[in-house]
Design a protein that fits this description.
Distance between the termini: 58 Å
Low-confidence stretches: 1-27
Strand content: 25-35%
Oligomer: single chain
Radius of gyration: 23 Å
Number of strands: 14
Structural class: alpha/beta
Number of helices: 7
Strand order of the largest sheet: 12-2-3-10-1-13
Order of helices and strands: HEEEEHEEHHEHEHEHEEEEE
Mean pLDDT: 88
């Protein structure tokens, strides 16, 4: 090799190293800032075999910025059911097809870990009628279940009720999750691509760190057999669940034969949750910030709320 070629090779190698450093500099993670906590559910992309995820496997992005992950607590095994508060919210505008599903709900409540606190409430008049406060006495929670009123006027908007429960739910260190059973129809707003009451419920849930699962159950009255309203109702339920890091269950526009497959899937998801802690990049004002998670572990997907509350920087 001539001196010219040797010099050229060295320059090329140095240039390559300099270029390779650019993305590393662009992805420097912040070492200081507010600590943010969010519950993450791990799903399998294919099949039901869910891989084990460790802290170093998790990457958090806030916009184009990568945040530093400081904690990844598995809420399973020795931590199964640790500080889990689960509220069942049932729509009083549901029709009598829900009656046959009450036993499925009772068995679901009874199957929860002994440390899981369960509450039961009915969505009515834009608020929540709590018939059973959060309790680890699952037999007592079972007894509180009743038939819905089956009155279309009883629930002007289920999203009013969701927001009402969030406001009344004391803030704790516990996981807080909701199973909402409703047709999702907003009788107050009507329907359309952007329901402000759904948006409010989503933001309030994200701010409080509450995950909302939902099961579609047909309602009564004209709205209960209106294709247009049913379609939007299911869309709203899907939006509420997806943006809070949960799942929405439905099969067509009719009532499900059984809630059991849905409840089994929910139980499976609750058993594969983690508490993620990361250092967020603060903005000038406190507010909601969109995040996304990524992992390179094969066949794994990380599901969480689309946005989190980040305090302002000092």
């Amino acid at each position: 090799m001539t001196k010219f070629h040797f010099t050229l090779s060295v320059m090329f190698a140095m240039a390559t190293l300099a270029i390779s450093d650019i993305p590393l500099l662009a992805q420097q993670v912040p070492s200081s800032g507010p600590q943010v906590h969010v519950v993450v559910t791990v799903e399998a992309r294919h099949g039901t075999n869910i891989p084990v995820i460790n802290r170093e496997d998790v990457v958090v992005y806030q916009g184009h910025d990568r945040d530093q992950v400081t904690g990844w607590l598995p809420l399973q095994g020795d931590h199964a059911g640790l500080e889990l508060e689960l509220f069942l919210l049932i729509d009083d505008a549901a029709n009598n097809s829900l009656n046959s599903q009450l036993q499925d709900l009772r068995e679901f409540i009874s199957s929860q870990p002994a440390t899981t606190a369960v509450g039961v409430g009915y969505m009515s008049e834009g608020t929540v009628q709590i018939v059973q406060n959060l309790t680890t006495d699952h037999a007592q929670a079972d007894k509180s279940l009743r038939l819905p009123l089956g009155d279309p006027g009883a629930s002007p908007s289920p999203y009013f009720s969701v927001t009402d429960l969030i406001k009344r739910w004391p803030e704790t260190q516990a996981r807080r999750e909701i199973l909402m059973i409703s047709d999702g129809i907003d009788r107050f707003y009507g329907g359309g691509p952007s329901d402000p009451y759904v948006d409010t419920a989503v933001e309030q849930a994200q701010r409080a760190g509450i995950i909302i699962f939902s099961i579609y159950s047909p309602g009564v009255g004209h709205s209960g057999h209106s294709f247009w309203r049913i379609n939007w109702g299911q869309n709203y339920l899907s939006q509420l669940s997806d943006e809070t890091g949960a799942e929405s269950y439905y099969l067509g526009f009719g009532p499900p034969v059984s809630f059991v497959p849905y409840l089994d899937d929910l139980t499976h998801r609750l058993a594969h949750q983690y508490l993620l802690t990361f250092i967020a990049k603060p903005e000038k004002k406190s507010g909601m910030q969109r995040i996304r998670l990524r992992t390179e572990v094969p066949n794994a997907e990380l599901v969480t709320a689309a946005s989190v509350y980040v305090p302002a920087g000092s």
